[in-house]
Predict the structure.
Amino acid sequence: MRLNKFLAHNTKLSRREADRAIFDGKIKIGHEVIINPAIDVNESMKIFYNGEQVKRKANYSVIVYNKPKGELVTKSDPHGRKTIYHSLGDKYLGFSPVGRLDYTSEGVLILSDAIDIVEKLMTSSLERVYKIKVSGEITRPLMSAMEKGIEINNSAGANENTDIRNMEIPPFNWFQILKNGSNYSSLKVSISEGKNRELRRFFAQFQLDILDLKRVSYGWVNLNALPTGKKRFFTRDEYTKLRKYLIFGEEGLYNQNLVLKDNDRDNFELGEDENEYKIYENSEKQERRFDKSKRFDLKNKNDNFRKLKK
C-alpha cells in the first residue's frame, strides 16, 4: 500500500493532506524522514506522524450512506463545496468510499475503515443497480446499445476535466423501463462497473441528459428504508456475506454449501444503531418481494424488462 493511502486510511488526513504532511517532513518510517508519498509500506513498518506512531486498525467497520445530491465524495474540496464528511462527521474521516457518486447523483455509498475491503469491493464486478430519469425517449437503438454495449470516442457526458475520450461500455446486466415518454423517461438499470461517469456518457451518445441518478443497490447491499442523508452500519447478515465474498468470491454469495469457519470470521463493529436493523431488514424483504413480482409481470407481458445476463 502506498504511504499516502495508508495515512489517509489510518488518520484523519485526506489524501491531499497526507501528501502535504509527507512533503513537509512530518512523516517517519522508523527513524527516517520520508518525503515520497508513493513509497510502499507494509505491516512490519513503524510509521510516525508528528512524532506519534500511526496505529493500524485491528477491527473494521462498514457503513452504508444514502448520499444526497449536492455532496462531493471526497474528504476536502479546494472550492469549499460540501462533502459527504460534512454530513457523516469527523468520526468517519478514516472511512474510505467504495467508488464514487458524482455531485448530482445520490443513493447507496458504502464506506469502510479497512482499505483492503474498499479496494476489493471497488474493483469487483458486483451488480450496481440504478434508477435513472432521462430527458427523452428510450428508443430501439438505445435499447440495443444497452443489450450489446457501445464504444465511445468523445467526451459527451463526461466530467469537463477528463482526459478520457475513448471508452468501451459493456452490455448492461439488465434494464427495466418504468416510463417511456417524449419529454422524459425513467428506468432501472444494472451494470457491473459504473466508473468515469459511465451511465451519463452512455446516454449522452443518444442526446439524452440524465436528470436524476440514484444508486439503489451495490451487490447485496440495498438502501431499504434508509433516509436520504443518513447512514447505518452493516447488519450481521451483510457482514457475513462480505466475509464470504472476500474468501469465496461471488460464488460465496449464492452457494449455500460454502460455510465460514470460525477462524474465517473477522472482528467487526456493528455500531450504536443495531436496533434499527430489523426495520431495514424487514423493508428489504418487502422491497425484494415487490421487485421480483414486478419484474416477472413485465418480463411476461411486454419487452420493457430485459434480462441480459444469466
